[in-house]
Amino acid sequence: MTFPNSKFVVVTGTDTGVGKTVATAALLVALGERGLSVAVAKPVQTGIATGEPTDLEEVARLTGSTAIHEFTRLTPPLAPVAAARIDKVDLPPLDTYVDGIREIEADVVLIEGAGGLLVHLDGGERTILDLATDLEADVVVVGSEGLGSLNHFALTVKVLGQAGIEPVLVIGSCAAEPDLASISNLTDLPQVTGLPTTGRIPAAAGVLPIGDFRAQAPSWFTFT
User: Fold this and answer.
1) 82: Cα separation from own chain's centroid
2) Active site at which residues (predicted)?
């Protein structure tokens, strides 16, 4: 398949903790290998108080890229609306993110969401799906390979289809020795969603040295 078809690519997850950040980093490398300039944007980063590296810091560590753009930063490791409530701040309207992302100079802008597709990004109950729609973006859906993933992928693909968006599907963390459910899901996922699996990221990808990560990442995708 040809990818991307838009300057903007929203990377969302079927859930939290499915490998979305590592997949974003791998996409940055894979697209960069094709001669494209690639930037990454994060509309809302929560969990600043944990002391753990932020998502964009992880992208920078894995890829060496400095073309990263972070907008709202919130303290608790919660969904954006809940984190903003605890921090006692107002989230900006979604249009603020849309306008800021449109100003980024790059051939492709990868936009990493927060959790899943319908997570609210502002106080007006607008979501990552709304962000993708407003930007006329391609969408990459990252999910796990294990038990329950078929339903999570199918629900996300269905909602995107209702918005007229056909996403790219990526498995965010593939075990070196997958269990029976994972093997079965890889076979059944195209039938359940009507879409091929376009990317498979190894489970250990996030701990690779930068040189190994950059060398291997393009081979994890089958798009052209």
Assistant:
1) 21
2) 42
